[in-house]
């Protein structure tokens, strides 16, 4: 009986550990690869990471009590364990992270488009500088940079293209890994 109890404890520990590993991997992956949130969006990823993964917690805490129960951890484990072998391999973890990132990107896109639509007071599908200042003030800082055709209006396409370009430029400036060791000096001896 004690052996069975220990194996159950181990199984639950592994399930909880896997849940936290997935969450940590998703946060790191998202922070490293997700395009920067559009200005005016409130920095959702920064907010998400600052508050201990609150969004992730809410997605796992299905009963909304602010805690993750064993049943909720098991349910997460079972969602990730797509081949139902009771183990999580790196392919299952990667697939889960990818799915979660795609869902979050879609949510962020939907939220941004709703803010854009709300700011578009005349409903013409483009934002003037005044509409941006009133409805999306953080975006106003980059208005001229994003207005690719210099017509005094921003379309969703201009904003998306401009933000993607800024993200790519930022990624190019980031270090790519450990610095190469310097060659030993050849001093005669």
The count of strands amounts to 2
Give the count of structural domains: 2
The structural class is mainly alpha
Secondary-structure element order, N to C: HHHHHEHHHEH
Helix content: 55-70%
* N/C terminus separation: 70 Å
Shape: elongated
Number of helices: 9
Strand residue content: under 5%
Organism: Cupriavidus yeoncheonensis
Pfam family, one: EF-hand_7
Biased composition (Basic and acidic residues): 163-172
Biased composition (Low complexity): 177-189
Describe what this molecule looks like in 3D:
With about 190 residues, the protein is mainly alpha-helical. The chain has two domains: about 1-110, no CATH class; about 120-175, Orthogonal Bundle (Recoverin, domain 1). About 65% of the residues lie in helices and about 5% in strands. The chain has nine helices and two strands. It has helices at about 1-35, 45-50, 55-60, 70-80, 90-120, 130-135, 135-140, 145, 155-175, and strands spanning about 125-130, 155. The protein has a two-stranded antiparallel sheet. Helix 1 crosses helix 4, helix 1 crosses helix 5 (about 90-120) and helix 5 (about 90-120) crosses helix 6 (about 130-135). Mean pLDDT is about 75; it is low at about 25-50 and about 185-189.
List the helices and strands and how they pair.
Elements: H1 2-33, H2 44-50, H3 54-60, H4 70-80, H5 90-119, E1 126-128, H6 129-135, H7 137-140, H8 143-146, E2 153-155, H9 156-173
Antiparallel strand pairs: 1-2
Helix pairs in contact: 1-4, 1-5, 5-6
Characteristic key phrases:
single chain; 189 residues; mainly alpha; Recoverin, domain 1; 2 strands; disordered C terminus
């Amino acid at each position: 009986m004690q052996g069975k109890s220990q194996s159950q404890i181990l199984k639950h520990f592994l399930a909880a550990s896997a849940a936290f590993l997935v969450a940590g991997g998703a946060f790191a992956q998202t922070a490293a690869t997700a395009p920067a949130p559009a200005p005016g969006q409130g920095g959702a990823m920064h907010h998400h990471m600052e508050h201990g993964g609150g969004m992730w917690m809410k997605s796992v805490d299905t009963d909304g009590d602010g805690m993750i129960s064993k049943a909720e951890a098991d349910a997460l484990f079972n969602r990730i364990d797509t081949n139902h072998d009771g183990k999580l391999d790196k392919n299952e973890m990667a697939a889960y992270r990818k799915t979660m990132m795609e869902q979050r990107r879609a949510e962020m896109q939907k939220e941004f488009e709703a803010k854009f639509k709300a700011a578009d007071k005349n409903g013409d599908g483009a934002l003037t500088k005044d509409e941006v200042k009133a409805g999306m003030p953080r975006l106003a800082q980059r208005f001229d940079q994003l207005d690719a055709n210099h017509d005094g209006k921003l379309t969703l396409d201009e904003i998306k293209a401009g933000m993607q370009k800024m993200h790519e430029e930022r990624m190019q400036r980031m270090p790519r890994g450990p610095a190469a060791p310097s060659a030993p000096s050849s001093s005669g001896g």
